[in-house]
Specification:
Strand content: 15-25%
Radius of gyration: 21 Å
Distance between the termini: 20 Å
Number of strands: 12
Number of helices: 11
Strand order of the largest sheet: 2-1-3-4-5-11
Bound molecules: alpha-L-arabinofuranose
Largest sheet: 6 strands, parallel
Helix content: 40-55%
């Protein structure tokens, strides 16, 4: 925990968090409504939040919404009833949050968005948004493909495994990728469907693509897990992932990086799940009534196969 967080926590414990509706005498109480446990990324994110809460002395009330918006809304309402000091959540989809966010605001409980955004026009409904720039991630994926296919004369047929329909990372990674390849008409997305950010979803959709789409050159998967599912489908169809069909994914979790280092994936754009410590720092400031930036963007990189081999031994997730 940073010195700033320590002092902000101390302030809040002394009662400086007058805007907050309640909380414990010992420190901050945070209600956290997680999306679910759909991917390796999500598991790492949950652990990061739980570990950071413990280290910061934050009393964390945690809910797994099983990728259902109604479960997240229920959890948020229950946190409002419990008068927690701050609510944090990673919205499963972008829209449909205004009513419950307004309820939190009316109860004077600040809300922090982590990982994923909402599309609410009223940005006063939340204190800050901590997470990745998903459009930029999609752009990096597309730019790599443009460079990699520079010498290819004919068509490059891309199939896209989208994340959860309506989720910010699915919408934004699609947008960024499409923008990056737009000036190259030989790069065409010939099929695009959701695999819901899960390995089984990626496998199932890829099996269907392989049956109904001839000449697939590239898979663009919105996360590692769907890419790993696609690898299983490609191998079962007697093709070689990474060679017969190139694969680009987003996340860079250990399983994805292992497949990249083995040549089964060609490129991974990083999406950092380790948001816990920054979240606890922001929560401490928000509860203490301090100013926080409206947007905190996570720093990220991308990996080639060679870079994955180097990075893997020290990979934390
Ligand atoms: O919102 C982040 C995305 O959600 C990750 O890329 C994906 O793996 C997860 O399920």
């Amino acid at each position: 925990m940073t010195a700033l967080a320590v002092s902000a926590l101390a302030l809040s414990a002394c009662g400086a968090s007058s805007d907050s509706a309640g909380g414990s005498e010992d420190g901050i109480t945070m209600g956290f409504a997680q999306v679910g446990a759909e991917s390796g990324w999500r598991t790492a994110n949950t652990k990061s939040v739980q570990d950071a809460a413990e280290a910061a002395g934050v009393d964390l009330k945690f809910t797994d919404a099983q990728q259902k918006q109604e479960n997240q809304i229920k959890a948020i309402r229950s946190y409002i009833q419990q008068k927690v000091d701050v609510i944090a959540f990673s919205p499963v989809v972008e829209s449909g949050w205004d009513t419950v966010l307004k309820e939190a605001k009316d109860a004077n409980i600040p809300v922090i968005l982590t990982d994923r955004a909402v599309d609410s026009a009223d940005t006063t409904l939340y204190a800050t948004f901590l997470g990745s720039d998903f459009v930029e991630e999609g752009k990096k994926a597309g730019e790599w493909l443009v460079e990699d296919s520079a010498a290819v004369d004919g068509p490059v047929n891309i199939v896209e495994l989208q994340g959860t329909t309506g989720a910010a990372p699915a919408l934004d990674r699609k947008e960024g990728f499409e923008k990056a390849i737009a000036a190259n008409p030989n790069l065409q997305i010939v099929q695009s469907q959701t695999g819901d950010f899960t390995r089984s979803g990626g496998k199932q959709v890829m099996e269907a693509f392989l049956k109904n789409t001839p000449d697939i050159d590239v898979v663009y998967a919105h996360n590692d897990d769907m890419g790993l599912g696609a690898i299983e489908a490609i191998e079962a169809a007697g093709k070689v992932p990474g060679k017969d069909i190139k694969i680009i994914t987003v996340d860079a979790v250990k399983d994805g990086m292992t497949a990249l280092s083995e040549g089964k994936i060609n490129y991974i754009v990083e999406c950092n799940p380790l948001l816990g410590e920054q979240l606890m720092d922001l929560a401490a400031k928000v509860v203490a009534g301090e100013e926080v930036p409206e947007r905190v963007v996570t720093e990220e990189t991308a990996f080639t196969q060679e870079q994955a081999k180097e990075a893997l031994p020290n990979r934390k997730y």
